[in-house]
Specification:
By secondary structure, this protein is α/β, with parallel strands linked by helices. 43% of the residues lie in helices and 14% in strands. Bound molecules: nicotinamide-adenine-dinucleotide (NAD).
């Protein structure tokens, strides 16, 4: 196995930056929250699980500005209330990370013709409609920001054509399409819209939906042959949130240790 050289969180965001991370209560979303907060952003965790409060308490205890707000990305009024809270307290919102997803709750893998239509709709409602609704809700404040950013979480499963999760893979392909379309609509206001496509990441969700040993098998397929962890994605998110990426938009950045090349 290779020596791990991980990002140390050295990027700083401009003073006053306000960020929202949907699905930020656990896993990869929690790593984004921590990274953005350590980079200087006031950060909102928008999730439906109470783990978000525990994370906010821990990071607030370290002197960071992190707030949990129970928010359902499938519900526009819930998102509007969150954006209104950002407007009221800060007068701005600069970075929206669309990370919320049905992933841990996907259930067991199955052939595409055996997927329950209700499960298909649930995955699309959170992963695709939720990304669209959160972006729509945040649009006005992002356009008013000096450097508005939308960063959505896709998946390298789209490039790999991973079987037996057809609804999930299709939903993440839709996130990439939405990223391109919104980039064209928001570029005039200086808002960039990009996606990150993680490879298989060691989270509680991954361990729930995959067989034991799957993480190690995925690691062997990589140019950098080790297990991917949430912290491996934070540098990409901070880059896309920062001025360093201001002329990059509509792109999907694959962060998978060199398993897929697109
Ligand atoms: N872990 C991986 O291997 C991997 C690989 C590629 C992409 N991804 C993507 O990365 C992101 C995070 O993955 P993870 O492993 O941390 O999975 P996860 O299932 O733990 O995280 C998803 C988060 O979204 C939240 N959520 C679900 N429905 C919601 C709703 N209606 N409103 C608000 N929040 C809601 C969940 O409560 C959870 O906190 C997801 O978008 C996932 O699809 C993960």
């Amino acid at each position: 196995m290779s020596t791990e050289q991980r990002f140390d969180g050295a990027i700083r965001l401009p003073a006053g930056t306000v960020a929202v991370v949907t699905g930020g209560g656990r896993g990869i979303g929690a790593a984004f929250v921590e990274g953005l907060a350590r980079a200087g952003a006031a950060c909102y965790i928008a999730d439906v699980i109470d783990d978000g409060q525990l994370l906010a308490d821990r990071l607030t205890g370290e002197g960071l500005d992190v707030t949990f707000r129970r928010t359902d990305v499938t519900d526009r009024s819930s998102l509007d209330a969150l954006v209104a809270a950002c407007r009221e307290r800060h007068g701005r919102l600069d970075v929206l990370v669309n990370n919320a997803s049905i992933y841990q709750d996907l259930g067991s893998k199955r052939p595409f013709h055996e997927i329950d239509p209700a499960d298909w709709d649930r995955v699309m409602a959170v992963n695709v409609k939720g990304t669209w609704l959160a972006s729509a809700s945040a649009r006005e404040l992002l356009e008013a920001s000096p450097a508005g950013r939308i960063i959505s979480v896709a998946s390298s499963t789209v490039h790999m054509g991973v079987p037996y999760f057809a609804h999930y893979v299709a939903s993440k392909a839709a996130v990439m399409g939405l990223t391109r379309s919104l980039a064209k609509e928001l570029g005039h206001a200086g808002v960039t819209v990009n996606a990150i496509a993680p490879g298989l990441v060691d989270t509680e969700a991954t361990r729930t939906v995959n067989d034991p040993g799957y993480l190690a098998t995925a690691a062997e397929r990589r140019a950098i042959p080790r297990i991917q962890v949430p912290g491996d994605l934070v540098g990409a998110a901070l880059f896309l949130a920062s001025a360093a990426s201001s002329f990059i938009t509509g792109q999907t950045l694959v962060v998978d240790g060199g398993a897929t090349f697109v």
